[in-house]
Specification:
By secondary structure, the protein is of the alpha/beta class. The protein is built from eight helices and seven strands, in the order αααβαβαββαβααββ. A seven-stranded mixed β-sheet has the order 3-2-1-4-5-7-6, with helices on both faces. The structure holds S-adenosylmethionine. S-adenosylmethionine binds next to helix 1 and strand 2. The site of S-adenosylmethionine has 23 residues, from helix 1 and strand 2.
């Protein structure tokens, strides 16, 4: 069985699960994982305004799109990047149903996306960036794509510490269908945020197995 350390393995999982993803994600939310609350918190960190341009890395089926659209409005611009074509197909359905005309979907890995310099008023990634093996380079790209004074926010999974590790044997099988394995635990996007950006804020949830972090675009030199 794979450990989901490559993009190919991750893409295969999401290709197979795209049509069930929204249901599976809401089930986890109902079970108390609080995914929707964390998505909301991460979006709030961006402090978006009507007319803003926002980028979502690993947008999947567009679970965050209603929250983002509510804030940027029809004059804003939403760009969603994702590795998995079938996840983007689901996002496309949401866009059509909602009648949004300001969304661009881009099918590529986060690593291959060409970040436009100072092109965005906010960048978001929820439950996706830890799946990108070269997340550090991606976060450097995100830092360069933010306009001065604007933020990147992430919500994602991580390993808890101390006695809370007793829950790991129960949590891992629940998360495996989302391409999560223990091999991803050494990936620490928040450390890259600290390295490439400024004013890192981080809050832990679910006993330290989930977190929301945000950081500010670096000062122009
Ligand atoms: C758990 S889903 C999260 C989707 C959405 N952000 C949400 O909160 O529901 C993970 C998404 O990340 C995408 N993904 C995984 N690795 C990626 C990569 N290297 N580059 C871009 N997207 C990636 C997957 O295709 C999938 O759609």
């Amino acid at each position: 069985m794979g450990d989901f350390t490559t993009r190919e393995e991750v893409e295969k999982v999401y290709r197979q699960r795209a049509s069930h993803y929204d249901r599976a994600s809401s089930t986890l939310d109902t079970l108390g994982f609080g995914y929707n609350r964390l998505r909301w918190e991460a979006v709030e960190e961006l402090d978006l305004k009507p007319g803003d341009a926002v980028l979502e890395i690993g947008c999947g089926t567009g679970a965050n799109f209603p929250l983002l659209e509510e804030r940027i409005g029809a004059n804003g611009r939403l760009t969603g990047v994702d590795l998995t074509h079938s996840m983007l197909n689901e996002a496309e359905k949401k866009i059509k149903t909602a009648g949004w005309t300001n969304v661009d979907l881009i099918h590529c890995s986060a690593k291959d996306y060409e970040f436009p310099a100072r092109g965005f008023d906010g960048v978001l990634s929820t439950f996706a960036l830890t799946l990108e093996p070269e997340y550090d380079a991606v976060i450097a790209g995100i830092a360069s794509a933010l306009r001065p004074g604007k933020r990147f926010a992430i919500a994602d999974l991580k390993l808890a510490r101390g006695w809370r590790l007793v829950f790991l044997p129960f949590l891992l099988p629940i998360m495996r269908p989302f391409a999560v394995s223990l091999k991803l635990a050494p990936r620490h996007p928040w450390e890259s945020m600290k390295r490439h950006m400024e004013e890192l804020k981080m809050t832990e949830h679910l006993g330290g197995y989930l977190y929301v972090a945000s950081a500010l675009a670096p000062q122009l030199k």
